[in-house]
Amino acid sequence: MSALKGVNLLVMFALELTVLGSAAFWGATVPDPVPARIFAAVAVPTVFIVVWSFFGAAADARYPQTGWRRALLELVWFGGGAVLLGVAWTPWAGVAMFAVWAVNGVLRVVWGQVGQVP
């Protein structure tokens, strides 16, 4: 069982990276001139990083969230990443990402992994 718990934390980390990649990919695909796309591809992931580092990072969050606030933060953060992926690539990719996050979140709650460092 501990191996599955480790895999679940690894999936959480992969999801975090996927959110950042989705934000950058979306920024690079906006229908604007190249300078605006470059700016969006850098600025949007930066906003996601700042929000996560302040409120969501398990080890070093400045204002760590618990309970319903943590659930809302993750819903907005991972949901936002899923929406950006769905818009930039295909809606099914966004739906799949959100579904993986939902299963991962349920398993983290059941296994008591909420707030652990992936």
Would you write up a description of this structure?
The chain has 118 residues and is mainly alpha-helical. It has four helices and no strands. It has helices spanning 2-29, 34-56, 67-88, 91-110. Helix 1 (2-29) packs antiparallel against helix 2. It starts with a helix and ends in an 8-residue tail after the last helix.
Oligomer: single chain
SSE class: mainly alpha
Proportion of strand residues: under 5%
The H-and-E topology, N to C, reads as HHHH
Major β-sheet profile: none
Count of the separate structural domains = 1
Shape: globular
Helix content: over 70%
The average pLDDT is: 94
Number of strands: 0
Spatial gap, N to C terminus: 16 Å
Brief overview, please?
This protein is mainly α and 118 residues long. It contains 4 helices and no strands. Helix content is 79%, strand content 0%.
Could you outline the blueprint of secondary structure elements for this entry?
Blueprint: H1 2-29, H2 34-56, H3 67-88, H4 91-110
Features:
mainly alpha, 0% strand
